[in-house]
Amino acid sequence: MAIHASVRYPVAFVLSLLLPLGLQAKHIIGGVMTYACLGNDTYEITLKVYRDGNCTDCAEFDAQAFIAVYNCSGNCSGESQATPFVSLNAPLLDVTSVERPDYPCLIPPNVSVEEGLYRFELQLPQSPESYFIAYQRCCRNVTISNIIAPGDTGSTFFTEITPEAQQVCNSSPVFNEFPPIIICAGAPLEFDHSATDPEGHQLVYSLCSSYDGGGNLLTDPLYLTCDGARPGPACPPPYNTINFLGPNFSPTQPMGPQANLQIDPNTGLLTGTPINLGQYVVAVCVQEYDSAGNLLSTTTRDFQFNVAPCDPTVEAVVGSAEITEDQEYVIVSCGDNTVNFRNESFQESFIDVYNWSFMVDGQEVSFDEWEPAINFPDTGTYFGNLILNPNTLCGDTADIRVEIYPSIEADFSFEYDTCTAGPTVFTDASVSGSGQITDWSWTFGDGGASSEQNPVYTYPSPGSFPPTLTVTDINDCQDTYTLPIEYFPVPELIVIAPSEFIGCAPADIFFNNLSTPISEAYNITWDFGDGGTDTTISPTYTYEAPGTYTVTVDIVSPVGCQTDTTFGNLITVLPSPVAGFSFTPSRPSNLEPLVSFFDESTGATRWSYDFGDGRQSVEPSPTHEFRDTGVYEVRQIVTHPSGCQDTLVQLIDVIPQVRYFLPNAFTPNQDGLNDEYLGAGVLEGATNFRMVIVNRWGETVFETNDPFDGWNGRKSNAGDFVPNGVYMVLVTFTGPRGDEYEYKSAATVIR
After folding, report:
1. Last residue of a domain, one of 654, 682, 713
2. Mapping DSSP to helix (H, G, I), strand (E, B) and coil, where does residue 148 land?
3. Domain end marker among 386, 405, 424
């Protein structure tokens, strides 16, 4: 018997050495296989496999589906995986994402499903036995809720071409749409699971069993066996159905009895209301019968329902209202029977119908505006609702309570003395239609506050203030009223400091204005009694000449109130001496340390000198010897007969000087006289001393860094005596203040 497949491959077992083993295979969430008769015993087989698109560390679609064809009547006991009727490797043709369902008023979580497509042709001669074309793969999604050990449970997708179907060149029905990949928990499900049959045969739908296939073995050589994760090729029937978690789950109640999942056998309409969150394996079978009632084919679609919480996007919200614990919106209107409602419902783009309804005088009154202005006939309580998209899944309702109360009006007056600082008396004049005001809340505009009905308040400082009264009545209705006040009185008493002053000229005096109330807004004029004036609140003024002075202060408020005070003989300024002295020499030194000071002060009767080195003198013109070099701060303090003093400070720099001399000849003949060449002078504080002596050929005959080390006429003071003659001498050193010194001379050696 001739067997032909349009795509021929070696038996799949030979590929086992080429496959990556150990890859997680937990990814399958469904599949379906259908066939179409092309004529001449040729069939086109279509396999669709579905996987979890969000699965991590999971297997992808098989690049080649290992397909087996068995020719038997459902129990192929005489055949095995090694001896199928025919086997082939069908390539993966396409991978697409299954479209998510559109929930117009719900936001489902992110779920992704991918579809892998395999399609191939087979030539199968007519046979009195059925042809079973099968593909097997492990494993299913590990998070499935309704079957036992889902991570170890595989799938078998197959189609049976019965002898009756072969005789009439029948094609199996094909499901029209893929079920929704997400179902919102608590939302009614209604899905058209119908199929289309090319020949128009009668179709009968039912909830049925899914089939297991393959195992969880991932290692070679078992990977491609019937117990392995990827049987290659598929094993022969009969195929085992999957094991549901009983008693709550079964093929006809795959989502539990609460979901009440049902399918219309004639139309394929799948209905129910999934309640429990989770992932559920569901299978739908469609049986095809000819006009004589013969069963031609059964097509099983295996898929996974994902039941998830979905957030609503339509919500009825009433703005500017208090929400009670019972989720009731409460709107209170005091003195106004017309309520302007604010509709803050969302998402507005999904809201097609909105209706406001209230019970007024026992009758329901409705409004279909988005934000109506509703006039209620009288004070009282009115109950109503805002209803969005009534009688739809996208609907929502807000309960509303409107309280209409009598009006309340805040009012008050005040009294105070415009020019004299003192208390302000506030008088409440508020009224309420309820007849009972319960609370008064005053703020005086400067941080002060009161809860009395008629408070008395003293402003501590002047200014323009906005006193405000808020009143509340027995219905919690409130009203607020503000009445500005200009509070600019002049001080009842002008107080300044100092209250008396006696001091020496020149006298710098800070006049502190302690009067209250005053501010920068007031016009203030000071007259200091010597012709000087100022306009600041608290000035500082200098009296240059001795004398007694009267001070006057004049204050005018921003509203024209005026006051002034004269402080007679407030200030007494005493005469002061003027310190002054000179000294010689102008540049004393360690060589000339004696300094003579000459008094040049005026008006002094006593003198005091501090020389800055711990010693003093009270002579008018003393003489002082500085014992060390450096800069000294010499201070002269002179005293007037009035007792006033003056001080003069001058800096005196005692310079450290050096003196150094080199001889021009010496006689190193060891007679004890002039046997050594050595410089002389004053080198106190000098550093970096260096003496170099060279002969006429430039050869160094002596060198030292010690100013007290002389040359004895020998080379380096240790060799032979140098011959008589003239030698060049160079001496350098750094002075006490960093000055560089250099001395050159000619030294003549004579014996």
Report:
1. 654
2. coil
3. 405
